[in-house]
C-alpha cells in the first residue's frame, strides 16, 4: 500500500488511541503505546502478544510524521528502521521488535509513526455457503519520538509520554475551536482541555489523544459556547493530570 493511500487508514486508526501504557484489540496486545528514543536511553523495544485463537502475521513500518495545514502528513524514510520487519505470532505467543537508527545532531525532536499491519493469512479451505468472504484486518499506529543529541534531558518524556519541557505556545479560541501553535522543541500531548474565565473554570472537555508537533499549528474542535469564549482568560492543558500545563491569554 502506498503512503498516499495509507494516510486515511492511519487517521481512522488513530481514533482508537486512549491514554494508557498498553494498546489492545480483540487479537493483539501492544506495549508501550508511546515510544521514544534518545542518546540517554536504551534501544526502544515494542512488545506484541497474540491473545487470539489463530496465528497472526504482521508487518512493521516506520513513517516520518509531520503536521501541515492542520493535517497529519506521513512519508517514507530510511533513517529509522525496525527489526524484525515481519513477525508471525502463534496463539498466546509474544515477541518484541526493536528500533534502530541514528540520533541526529541538534536539540529538537523528530516525530515518526510506527505502523503495524496485519497481513492476510493463506486459507486453503473452500468457502461454505454461509461463509462470509470479507477478510477484516487490523492496522495499529503508535507515535514514536526521536530526540536529537543536544536536547536537554529534562525535556525528555516521562513514562506517560508527556515531555518534561515547559511548552511555549500561542493559542486562541475562535468559532468554538481551540487553535494552538507549538513553538517548543518537543510535541504537546493533549488528552483534556480546560478554559479559565477569571478565577473560575468555565469550560472543560476530555478529547481523544491529540499531538501538536514542534512547529505545528493544530485546531481542536471543542464546541466552546460563544458567550464563554468571549470571557476566556486562560488555558489549562491536561488539568489535574500528568502533563498539566497552564497558559495565560496574551
Automatic annotation (TrEMBL):
InterPro entries from the UniProt entry: Ig-like_fold, PapD-like_sf, Periplasmic_pilus_chap, Pili_assmbl_chaperone_N
One Pfam family hit: PapD_N
Gene3D superfamilies documented for this protein: Immunoglobulins
Organism for this UniProt entry: Izhakiella capsodis
Entry keywords, A to Z: Signal
UniProt key word Signal: yes
GO biological process, one term: cell wall organization
GO-annotated cellular components: outer membrane-bounded periplasmic space
Taxonomic path: Bacteria, Pseudomonadati, Pseudomonadota, Gammaproteobacteria, Enterobacterales
Protein name per its UniProtKB record: Fimbrial chaperone protein
N-terminal signal peptide: 1-24
Domain Pili assembly chaperone N-terminal: 34-146
Keyword match Signal: yes
